[in-house]
Prior knowledge:
Blueprint: H1 2-33, E1 34-36, H2 39-45, E2 48-50, E3 53-68, E4 74-77, E5 83-88, E6 95-96, E7 101-106, H3 108-139, H4 145-171, E8 187-191, E9 196-201, E10 208-209, E11 216-219, E12 225-231, H5 232-235, E13 243-247, E14 256-263, E15 273-280, E16 292-308, E17 313-315, E18 318-324, E19 329-335, E20 337-341, E21 344-347, E22 358-361, H6 363-375
Antiparallel strand pairs: 1-19, 2-22, 3-12, 3-16, 4-11, 5-7, 5-10, 6-9, 7-8, 9-11, 12-15, 13-14, 13-16, 14-15, 16-21, 17-18, 18-19, 20-21
Amino acid sequence: xxxxxxxxxxxxxxxxxxxxxxxxxxxxxxxxxxxxxxxxxxxxxxxxxxxxxxxxxxxxxxxxxxxxxxxxxxxxxxxxxxxxxxxxxxxxxxxxxxxxxxxxxxxxxxxxxxxxxxxxxxxxxxxxxxxxxxxxxxxxxxxxxxxxxxxxxxxxxxxxxxxxxxxxxxxxxxxxxxxxxxxxxxxxxxxxxxxxxxxxxxxxxxxxxxxxxxxxxxxxxxxxxxxxxxxxxxxxxxxxxxxxxxxxxxxxxxxxxxxxxxxxxxxxxxxxxxxxxxxxxxxxxxxxxxxxxxxxxxxxxxxxxxxxxxxxxxxxxxxxxxxxxxxxxxxxxxxxxxxxxxxxxxxxxxxxxxxxxxxxxxxxxxxxxxxxxxxx
Length: 376
């Protein structure tokens, strides 16, 4: 009986100790999350509170891409008949005007082509006269039909040959209408087909180039645009005509206004992203094709529960607000934030804080007091 009594007494003592420890732990947990201010401290801190406010807030989609040039604004210059580069002044980055001489080529085949054209032209003159003579004789039955037909065939053949040679002359920028035996030249000029700047120079003076070789590459900057990579989940948020701002890594403060002009309907296999083409409202000549850029796109607005930015404090990588329990006690509560706009921040888990007074002004003061209390 005595042993039973001792066992019961021991259990009672342990139970009381357990309750005391639990009570102590609960009190400590509450004290670590609640800040208590005296009346004097309240006056010095000058706290202000408010409830969550429902606002229409826009989210910002941050993406990246690079400056691109449409195919119609990029020109590759080649020499259709080949030849040797006699002279050029082009350098990458140099500005050129449409119609300006950008290079001079020379080759003996140019001389031969001009010779063939003028010889054919001379023969055609004789063939035309012979055709007219045989036609007149045939009508008066002074010559056979065969002779007239041969004259007609020879005249038409030379006319076709002359037309073909004339088109070849145009390929090397020679005007067949002004060509004569007095201005035959071994050199021909290459003219700029657009106004723009030089992006590549692939030849040097004295080098022989084949018809398929690209001598120069020119770019017309008037339609340079921004090509952005947008992931599949964000494509539906965009629309043609939507505004955005773009900036480079080197000058993030220099914002370039753009507008979406085309959204690709095809997703890449690797990244599941689509190309979105944007037009610069005011093109900056310092922006060059191939340059990487960042962009911020304001997507559709939605109603959200918000607080002023100063109400949210950051501590050890997490974000918190202080909920007023009464006039002197304030409990720190973790929150999840979303989009920031015009000094307001979206509180994603705001439903749990609905109708509660949240400290806006003085939140960091409470955080410092709570931190100092936990360090004691």
